[in-house]
Amino acid sequence: MIDQRKQYVVQCITSVMNIPREEFRSTTTSNTALEKFLDDPSEKVLQAIEIKEAGPDSEAKRSVTLATGLENYSDGCNEVHIIKTSYEPLTEDNIAKNVLVGCLRMSPIRSIFYNLREVYIPMLLEGSSGGTKPGAEALEGHLGDLIRDFDAGLHASFRRGLRKQNHFDEKDTTGIISPIDEVRFWEDYRDAQGVGDASQERAGKFAEALSSVSAELDDLKAKSFPQLSDLSEALIDVLETLWTCDATPPYPQQRMHHFLKTTAGALGRAVQAKLNSLKVWTSSFSQVRNHIREGHKICERWNEITVDLTNIQWRSGDHTWQGEAYKDIFLTNLAGRIQEVSQLRSQHDQILKLLPEEEIKMLQVDTCFEPFTKFAAFSYNAYTVPRWKEALAEYENRMVPVQSKVADRLRNELFTEKSNPVQAVRVFQRYQETLERKNIREALTNERERLLTELGELLDRIMHELEIFDPEQLPAGRGLSQHARRMMWIEHLRAKADLAARPLVGFLRDLPGAGKVNSSCKKVRQELKDARQRTFQDWQHEVESQLNAVDDPIALEMNGRVMEFDTSQQGALKITYSERLIMLVKEARLFEQMGCSIPSKVRSAVQNGLKFYRFAVQLKQICNFYNHLDTDLLPSQKLMALEEAIAFEQLFTDKKSSMKQVQWAKLDQLETFTRAVKDSAERLRAVNRRLRSGHTQVSAEVVQLANISLLRQRDQWKAKLAQIQKAMDVTITACGCKDPESTAKPWKRHWDYQIFKIMEVQYRFGLESLNEHLPELKADLVLASKQLRLKPPLEELRTNYYKEIKSFIALPLNFKGLDGAPQIYKSMPDRNSEAIAVVFKKADELFVKVQKLQESFAPWLVIGMMPERVQEMVEEMQEPKDWDLNFRALKAKRKEMDKIPDTIKIDCLTISTVVLKSIVEDQFERLSDSLVIALRRKVNEEAKVVKDFLEEALEKLNVRPDSVQELGKAQAEASRLLDQQPQVKRQLDAADEKNKLLKTVANGCDLGEVYHKFEEFQLRLEAFEQLAADLREELRSKMDTRISNMNIEIEKFASRWNGSKPKTADNCSLEEAKRNAAIMEEWQEQWEALKEQIETLQGDCADFGLEPPSLAEINAVEEDLQNQQRSWALFQEYTTQLEDLMNQTWLEVRPRLFVIQ
Prior knowledge:
Keywords: Coiled coil. This protein is mainly alpha-helical. Among the domains are: 549-577 and 612-706, no CATH class; 714-856, no CATH class; 880-906 and 908-1035; 1038-1155. It has a 5-stranded mixed sheet. Strands 9-8-11-10 form a 4-stranded mixed sheet. Strands 6-7 form a two-stranded antiparallel sheet. The radius of gyration is 67 Å and the shape is flat.
């Protein structure tokens, strides 16, 4: 059975020692030690040491000795140790938890130092801000300090080469792992006890040399690129001081070599850390360009420094560098990698600029850098090189379609048919990184060959121009001789040739004809160089010959006057310093800047000219100022500058003036005179400058005055005039005029005339538009006493208007201007009398317009002016179209009224229609209400008529006939209703039409009940005929019953009659007879009622086609009743006449006695 614990231990050992499992070999003793360690709880340590064996099998097998103690270890051997953390028996399950695996490398001190420095101190003591590392809380406070002291002691011992405190081994640099370690090594050496005074002094010199950068070397990763660059430059002096330090023996080369290497490594790691922290592949190139460039610069610069020191500076002197110059390989490779990244990003950035956004998305250009994002591109080592090459190859594959598109864009931009080679080359410089890509170069082969041909032709043209040189074709150059201008022309041609040479060694270099054109280019450049040299020699000979000629003005006459009056130029002041000498100074500077060596004689003349050049320039300026003084001073300001002008001129015209005595040779006198003249000129120039400045300021203010309306911006006119007056006063005060009233009078008069011109123009403009731009006059259109009026009234508006006109017309009469010529303004109204007449004419026209406007609004108020008549017209409306036309008219008028602006401006008058529109709107509203009320009333009336008719008709149709007569009447009534139905329908439709119209403007009436009744009426009317037929049959079937009932009624009547009929008059008294007569009338009425029923019955029988009904006793009863009726009727007549006579007097009766008879 395999012991998994042994397998675990062996696997740990082989893994740490890097021994393949098949090459691992152990001894029997080792197996015993392993078993003892695994099974014996008291054995806490197991150590494995690889034994170096010699022999034929030593290469095939690697022996490892295991022991339960640490006594067999020696420095530098391959060692692994395993420690138990408890006495718990080791099992397959807990072995990984209960043991610690470690190793010793080089020495125990080094191992504990690195473990402490890199593992335990960061974990226990270097907590993040605001917290502590896991496990740190378990340490007591003083233990942390002890750990730090222990680390510092180990580090110091490490730097000394693991020797005692007073022993230092300068040859052992294994403890120097960073630049700061070297600094502290010499500081420790200097401060050590018992090392000897000479050694301490020597170490102190080295420590002092390094002290200036000790603080900077402590933590390079925290520094920015500029700080790293500054540190590199500072290290130059430190290294030079350290190497050349006066110490015996001098600084060891072996330690210097190691110091340069550790410094290079520290700088490289700092650069790597900063560049790796950037999102170099996903950020825009503009964000990372400077960082990449600075990182590359630091790497290259440090190698330049070390090579310069070890190859040049330290190759001579007492302490020389032996062997090859030092150049750090790591920094060289890192710089190369940074340069590759920079080129890739630069090319990629140019490609992005060449392609439109749509193509970039389509080609997925943003994903091309994905291969580089899988590792840290700036971490250069032997293992990252293959990964870099693989990523680069994948990037190139992804860029193939992109490069094809870029080549097309470059072909269109760089190699157009109309482009010239110089322009193409200059544009090429913008895309030189992109054009260096092989695929793009190959895609542009035809275009590059054409450009190569054009460059050859360009070089031929340059050579041809050089061969047929024509002085007339030279470029103009003010103050330069022909030789100097030719030199500039040659330099221009040389710049073209140099520009053509760049692509010949760049992106055109691989073309077949590039060598030939390059040779031609070299030839042209050589010819230009020769022509340049010949031109310089010609200039040199010419200048030297001029200097040798005594009368040539180029040679300064030292004993001659500095300045004199030129009679040929009307007494103009001139300086005796030659213009040719000034030209010589300029040309000498020009040729010297071009790299030409100026001969000593010419240089001496130039220096002599330069010696007095500043005086000549100043005096030349003074001459120009003097000669143009008359034109520089404004005529209107001459009196104000008169005092300073006279003082300046006296320096040249006064016989006692020193101008005639001043010579070039007398330098002190020349300087004094120049200063005096310059100061006087400066005072006069200052006065003139202030006057000019004041004049310019006043001019600007006056120009602004021209843009201010005198009519509409009168206050601004006054304010601007006050500013002008203030500016003039300030100028006059600043110039220090002794009598400002008189000296400034011409200047003020000048500006008064200018202001008069501006004011007159503004005055005329104001008169022309006076009626439009006077202060606004406002009025409202209102209704007063049933009349349309203006408020305020038209007469008041007219008065205010003419008042404003007169105010503006009289404005110049009180205007004084700047008090330079105040009288000129009073003539302005007379000069513009015609325009004033036009103003009053326009005023009359204005008020005519206002009156017409007022009249034009009168029709809008007709409703309010005749309200009774309008109401009568509303009441007379009958048809819906009458209301519809009125509602439409109101709507149209409202829209028309909305188009009327709230204010109507007629020139300066603003007529407000707000009040008028509110009145009209109120009238419209009242009219609309009247129309709505009338329409609603009309709808209700018509609906009520229809409703009343329908209710009556339904009531009639609801009656159930009990006889044929009643049925006939009902049928007749139904026929009449049927005839009336269309008319009723028309009435109802008319009411509905009006109601629909009403609903469009207000809430309508509810005609639902009327329509419901009308529908019921129609249904009942339609069903009446069938009802009548049914009733007819029903009545016919009841005729026998009716006849029988009628006989019964007759019998009952006869019985009552026979039993209760009145007695005769013979058997009763008069009163009784009267009662009987009255009773008889009642019997007669009852009989008539019964007889009507009988007649109805007889009629119904006749209508139904039946035989007349057989009614017993009817005739006998009727005959007896009639007889009795006749008797009692006569008695009734007699008694009535008798009572009438009895109520009259005798006198009334006597004339009519015949009545009694």
